[in-house]
Amino acid sequence: MRPINIFRSMAVAGAVLLAPSMLSAQIAKPLSFAVYGGASMPMGDASDAFNTGYTVGGSMDLRAPVMPFGLRGELGYSSMSMKGLSAGASAKSTDLGGNLNIVTWMPSVIVKPYLTAGGSYSHIGVSASDGTNSLSASENHFGFNAGGGIDFPLGPIPARIDIRYKQISMGKDDQGNTASLKTVPLTFGIRF
Fold this sequence. Notes:
- By secondary structure, the chain is mainly β.
- Helix content is 15%, strand content 63%.
- It has a single domain, classed as Beta Barrel (Porin).
- The protein has two helices and eight strands; from the N terminus they run αβαβββββββ.
- Strands 1-2-3-4-5-6-7-8 form an eight-stranded antiparallel barrel.
């Protein structure tokens, strides 16, 4: 056999053996899950009233194979403590809610950047205590969120870093202006 034919045969055999593994690396799982946690940073007027808090949650991605976009459903809980309280007093805001987003993944092999945006629904609660008396109130509101992140391997563990802008409409304030709760969640997650 001539040397050129040997190299051609080896190249064809290599392509046949490597093609399935390369193709499976490009095809996303149609259903995947993630758990995440991180900081919830207040923005706008909320940054005058609240400290940076925390957020935890989980998500589910639904994505057709070989498609660059999909749907992401999220359920999360956030809490931020109030600034400038007297000694012995405490107050916090909580947000238990969900997002339904469209996600677009950028073409990439190892690190996969993505953009995401969609509607949000939140059960916003506020509680306060001075050590003797306490009170609480809660309301349900809609809003939106938009942001992006990257999916990447952390050794054998699939991981995610995500940053968003989230705005929940809180209705009208005393002066008739539209009030909203604006936060920026920055999270790290594990995908499976």
